[in-house]
Each structure stands twice: as structure tokens, then as C-alpha cells.
Amino acid sequence: MLTDQRVSNRIAIIDVGSNSVRLVVFDGMTRAPAPIFNEKVMCGLGRDPENTGRLNPEGVEMATAALRRFARLLRAMKVTRVDILATAAVRAASDGKAFCDRVHAETGLTVKVIDGLEEARLSAFGVISGDRRATGIMGDIGGGSLELVLLEEGEIKKSVSVPLGAMRLHAVFGADRARLEAEVKTHLDTVDWLHEGADKPLIAVGGSWRSIAKLYIAQENYPISVVHNLTMPRAEIAELTHIISQQSRVSLDKVGGVSKRRIDSLPHAGLVMNMLLERMQAKEVVFSSHGLREGWMYEALPEELRERDPLLDACLSFAEDGERFHQHGEELYRWSAPIFREQPGNLGRLRLAACIIGDVGWNEHPDYRAIQSYNRILHHPYLDLNHHDRVFLAYTIGSRYTGNFKGDESSDRLLDDDTRSIGRLYGHAIRLGHTLSGGVEGILPGTALVLEDKVLILQLHKDFAALNGEVVEQRLSKLAKLMDCESQVVIVDQLPQP
Known about the structure:
Elements: E1 11-16, E2 20-26, E3 35-42, H1 57-77, E4 81-86, H2 88-92, H3 96-107, E5 111-113, H4 116-130, E6 136-141, E7 146-152, E8 155-162, H5 166-173, H6 177-189, E9 201-205, H7 207-219, E10 231-233, H8 234-245, H9 249-255, H10 266-280, E11 284-287, H11 292-300, H12 303-306, H13 310-322, H14 329-336, H15 347-356, H16 369-378, H17 387-401, H18 409-414, H19 417-437, E12 447-452, E13 455-461, H20 470-482, E14 486-492
Parallel strand pairs: 1-4, 4-5, 6-9, 9-11, 13-14
Antiparallel strand pairs: 1-2, 2-3, 6-7, 7-8, 10-11, 12-13
Helix pairs in contact: 1-3, 4-11, 5-10, 6-10, 7-10, 8-10, 13-15, 14-15, 14-19, 15-17, 16-17, 17-19, 19-20
């Protein structure tokens, strides 16, 4: 049974990285964590242009000030657990311990410095939290290091941390292309298992690589702005990263779509990805917004929560926050099942998700329910879906609210005609179910959908006969036409057994 099992106690993680310090607060432990507070300060702790081996003094002051602010906020938010994890910059710096001691003295917060393999493991867990069968090589590029993990069906097989962080490469090698390529090659040569990623995806984690995805979205006028699970074939991303790796700061600044604080190191991040793709012979790149913080949360979850589907849990939370009768989804899914016996691939899961969030637009103006619901799902930040499935789910809900939903450029570009037809069919079935029941739990079990000899029959138990009406028959007829059937309403003494 899909029930909401979140725990009310707030927990938080502070990620002290080479480039940024970020606080994320979650409203308890849940399988699909949605932050209630998320703030990042670009401190540049690992920016060491003089190659002193110490933390950037200006960055230390900015980070300490940010952590003082975070500590005060955490007390006000009554957070019950906070973990502070410091990565490459702090662990590599000769004054890293002094920084941690200062933070503790000024804020009361204890900083835990994790090694590269622990960072790799947590980042891989972040990817697994969204896809329990993740397969390929995860690469998490930070400012000071690159973590690589070989994943097979959601299991960590091999991992390594190498000093190929984008900020470090920029600080040490600048624009010296020959030395930079030699450095990347030297460290990738030490990873003798990269060939095991052949014809599998490179799962790209880290802000610098996400900036590459954002640049692609901006330049290509890509219809979905969500970076998470953006997938690009190797040939396309290899060409893009090759071009990026050769650009100057001035050129990238003119392009737009990239944070100014990442522009200096973006060519270095592009070169690392380009050379890694070549070494792996990867099939494609899948950009992931999940990483160390999501992995930390995933590891903290009880095993029974880890086993749950993150998409369906996110939809349950979405429904609970925005629907009138959020318990109705599973009932609607079971009720419509007899006419959807054969569902290839992932469609059954997506139909259940659509049933759960099928009332999400109830409080919008009737003229805008379809497009507003479509856009909410299309751009929702916490749905673990690839872009094709994201658009399909959004299109299904858009179709639930109007008989002739057209979608937009996203559906035109990412869905073929057959897939749109399935989404339209799912949407109209959900529409009929909500019309028949008013969205209230307990009514649909007194009715049944039956498909017999090209006739779609809505059976109403005699105790529920009064539910029939003109609008019900109209929507049943529309659904039947989409299925190339006739329609009929029948009052019965006994419903068929499921």
C-alpha cells in the first residue's frame, strides 16, 4: 500500500566543498526528499592561485560567515540532526584542521572531513537513490577532485578519487592546454577499469558539469529547463565539450547561461568530460542533480523506506500538498486496470503516478487547468524521471483536464504520435474516474470498467446507479472513441470479480 511515511523531525546537511558551501534542510526522512530550505554560498575555499596548499583566505572568511548564519538558522528551524561534510579542499589543505576548529569554536558545529572514497560512495548513493538499478560510470566533478564509481544494477563495483577538480585544474594549469591534457591523461591512466563503462552512460554529477547542461539548454532552446536526467548521445556531448574546452572566459561570458563564478573553470570541466567519454567509450551522458547530499539522505533512511519507489513517493507528497482527496489515486489505478492489461515497459508505473496526481490542478481556473498542470509537472524539480517520461506524465495530466489537449514544444519534440495517444488515453480514463466519483475515495469500487467485443461498458452496481448522468456518459463515450469502441452504461446486481 502506498502511504505517506515521512517522519516529522527536520534534518540537515551542510556540504563544504571546494567552490561552495551549501545548507539543505529536509522536513524529515522520506524516500523522495524535497528540501524545505536550500542555500548556497560560492566561497571558493579551494581557489589557490598561488598554489600554497592552503585554503583561500578570502574563502575561509566567507565560509565561516556562511556557517555562522546557517548555525543560527538551524537553531531557529529546530533541526534535530545536522551533518557537516567537508570534501577535497579542506582535506587537502595544510590548514584544513585549523578551519574546522575555527568553525566549531564560532558556531558549535562539528565539521567531518571525508576522504575521496567516502565522497565517491555517497555521491553514488545519491544516483542510486533516484534509480535503484543505475548502471554505468558515475563521475562527480568538484572543485578539487573527481570521483568515479562503476555502478552495475544499483551496486557499487569499483570507485576512485583523482585530483581532477575543475577549480584545481584552472588554478594550477590555467590555459596551458598541453600540460592540462597531460595531467588529465596521467590520472585517467591510473583508472584501469574505465573500459568497463563501454556502451553504458556516464552519469554526470557536480555543478561544473551541470553548467555544461545548462549551456546546452540555453543554446539549443531545449524545451525543458530541468537539468536532472537530461540525456545526450556521446557524439553530441563530445562535440560540445570539445568546443567548450577551447573557449576563453570572454567567449563563454558572451554565450550566457553559465554562472559567472564557474566560467573560469568550465573549459577544464569540459576537457575532463571529453577525455573521460573517449576513454570510456560511453554510450551517452546522463546529467544528474543527485549527488553527495542525496546520498547522505539515502544512507540515513531505514531499509524499508529505501525500497520504496521515489517517483511514487514524490507523487504522493505532491498529491497530499495539492489535491482535495489525495487518497484516491491507487483506487483509480485499480479501477481503470481492466482496460489497460498490456502496458509495455515503464507505462504501468507512469499510469499509477498519473492516477496519484490526477487532481493536482483542481484549484486552477478551469480555462487553465490543463496547461498549468502540464507545466507544474514538466518543471517539478523533485520527480525522478527521464525527460521523455516527464513529458509523458505531464501530457497525460494535461489530457485529464481537457478533451483536446495539445501540449507544447516539449511534447512535440520528445513524444511520438503513438506515445501521445497513450497519454491521451490514460488522461481520459482518469478524467472519467474523477467525474464519476467526484474524486472521493470509496465510490469507484461500486463500479467497473469492462471491455467486451469492441464495447467499453461502465457497470454500476445498483446501489450506485444514481451516479450516472449526462457528463459521465459523455466522458465514457470520449474514452471509448479513443479506444475505437462503442460505449454503454449498465446497471448490475453484482460486479465482476477483479
